[in-house]
Amino acid sequence: MSTGANRAAAQPSGLLRLYTSSPVLFCFCAMAILTTALWSLGFQLNNDADDLLKLHEIRTLLETGNIFDRTLPGIVQPEPYVSHWPWIVDLPYAAFARLLAPFAGFEPALTLASFAVPLLLLAPALYFYNRLVTAIGFAYPAVALPLALIFAARSFFEFAPGRIDYHNLQILLLLAALVLMMSQNRLSAFVNGLLTALAIAVSAEFAPFYALVMAVYAFDWIFDREGGQNRIIGFGLALTAGAIGLFAAIVPPSAYAAVRCDTYSTPHVTALVAAGLSFAFVPLLAGRRVGWPMRTAILLVFAAASAAVLAGLFPQCLASPYASIDAYVRDNMINRILQELSLFRRPDVVLSTGFLSMALLFIGALAPAVICARPEGRSRPVVILALFSLLSLALAIGYIRYYRYLPIFSGIGLIFALANLLPSAGLGRYLKSPVPAASHRYALILPGLVLSGAMALYHLSVKPAQAAVPAAELADGCYYSPFEPEQGWPSGAVVLSPPLIGSRFVALAEGPKVVTIPNHPSAKGIERSYRFLDPATADPRAILDASKATHVAICAWRGPPLPGLEAAYPFAAGLIEGRPPAWLRECPTKASSPLRIYSYRNADGSDAACPTSTLAAQARP
User: Fold this and answer.
1) How far is 271 from 249, CA to CA, in rounded Å?
2) Which of 107, 198, 365, 493 has the most CB atoms around it within 10 Å of its CB?
3) Rounded to an integer, what distance in angstroms lies between the CA atom of residue 459 and that of residue 468?
């Protein structure tokens, strides 16, 4: 072979050059194809009832056009259900559906929006993730990005088709904030202030992360880093303007004085404005001659004063969002939800199939901190990554709700660990970065292994207490089985069901009203549905009357009798097995239906009619 031929053979192909120059595009296509294929096959990457409620919420917004009224008409406890999500989280889906509705029809447009918008949000999220990987210093992002994405797939599955909860928007905003912090110009800080206000307006769930964002800008000013004063002032001004602007956009004038701790309202805007003004004016008051101890003290005084004022004005917001909910609901439902627990209280950590993945996440989360332990490893991007990674790890251990976000940071940390283990030749050379790895080959993985071992020892020695399973939870178990709720409901039908089944009905375009769904603003409905099936309830009919329900829906058991269930929960077992009391009448359902539906009575005392789309013959065991 000639020298020219050898040279041509050594040249990378056009496709390889295109991939090297645009890895984000290829990774987006791969993730989109994967998640779409899994969605089309019926796999639920995130089987979250919040997506069903969000669908109903977007539909209501499109039908009414009222951005300020967050009352959802399909949920009657009988008290009105007022959503705690601001309308801005519905905006991308509503706008997309509105554009398509004239061509595809209302419901198909809504379905297309639920499919496409999460994927559209994935594209900028991957762009910022690639920018983060590049800022960390990996010489070959085309290799590091897909590898980090594989490790972080659990987080990016929040962008799968149909995943229309607000978590994907939170991830996108946080990645943008991280990338902006890597820059040291004033405009980036200003934009980050606006993004911080937007993120808190979407949900205060990410407040710990944005508190760390503020701490980074404060650190730059305290220690007089180049441009630090301009950045903290720009951030503070943008945070203040963004908080006030979003308050005007989200909150109706009639509710300006209202205090709602679980959604963007007066306490949130007050806190953001106090922080923003402190950041904007403290550097001007302090001047440039004051040393770092005095700067720290001044900022802490302003922070303490702001916290004291907030605590005095809004003492009700010092507790958990669930503090005002009846203890019965907290004990029987909310405190039993897996994401509301800590890893110390999760009952299946050691023997779960996810223990290995947990250990990998721990390793990846701690690896950047190990690198920063050496002075030569403390570049600004790696220090920021290490801080956010440690915070994410602490949040995930203390509150499983945050566990879904940990892979974002662990994915990059695992690349460091892998690069330290692989030989310099081969794949290892494509994962190297200017950041020096630990001298010992296993130094980066050791802290994560130790933490995983400690977690395993804790769970082996301290058995988390498990309360008795409520009857309503057993009666809600078919939610995770694929099924279509019955349709053809009579006008005015109101269904009392366990909360998860209620979320199935509320997502229907033409379905019955429901008493409850599994969200804390529906706490009164949740209590009624749980007490209805509770064996301690003397007269379940009183619950139906109080909720003004006309029907009951419950998971069905069509096999042999269940003696254990019948002994523990006689009333609930009778409904599950198809033995209702005289005051309920079972409606015909398909033999394959996971539900049993019972009619009760209308408000005028007449018998409630059954859904008309079911079979004429009743499906009994």
Assistant:
1) 17
2) 365
3) 20
> How many residues belong to the chain?
621
- Asked if residue 117 lies in contact with residue 58, where contact means CB atoms within 8 angstroms, the answer is no
Q: Select the more confidently predicted residue: 146 or 464.
A: 146
User: And the tokens for 254?
Assistant: 């009639």
Q: 40-87 pLDDT, tens per residue?
A: 887 777 778 899 999 999 999 999 999 999 999 999 999 999 999 999
Instruction: Provide the β-strand partners of residue 75.
Output: 514
Query: Ramachandran region of residue 387, left (φ > 0), alpha (ψ -120 to 50) or beta?
Result: alpha
User: For the residues of 540-600, what is the DSSP string, one character each?
Assistant: HHHHHHHHT-SEEEEE---SS--HHHHHH-HHHHHHHHT---TT-EEPP--TT-SEEEEE-
- The distance from CA 527 to its chain's CA centroid, rounded to whole angstroms, is 24
**Residue of 583, 475, 603, 585 lying closest to 539 (CA atoms):** 583
Helix (H, G, I), strand (E, B) or coil at 511: coil
Q: Please, where are the H alpha helices in 227-291?
A: 228-250, 266-286
**CB 48 within 8 Å of CB 339:** no
Using CA atoms, how far apart are residues 466 and 531, in angstroms rounded to an integer? 20
pLDDT tens digit string along 447-470? Answer: 999 999 999 898 888 877 777 889
Alpha helices (H) in 353-434, listed in sequence order: 355-372, 380-398, 406-421, 427-430
Q: Which residues contact 102 (CB under 8 A, 6 or more apart)?
A: none
Q: Are 387 and 212 in contact (CB under 8 A)?
A: yes
| pTM exceeds 0.90, yes or no | yes
Domain ranges of the chain: 21-346, 347-467, 471-599
Please tell me whether the peptide bond between 267 and the residue prior to it is cis, using omega within 30 degrees of 0: no
Q: What is the pLDDT of residues 465-478, one digit of tens each?
A: 777 889 999 999 88
Q: Which among 261, 249, 214, 210 has a CA at the least distance from the CA of 234? A: 214
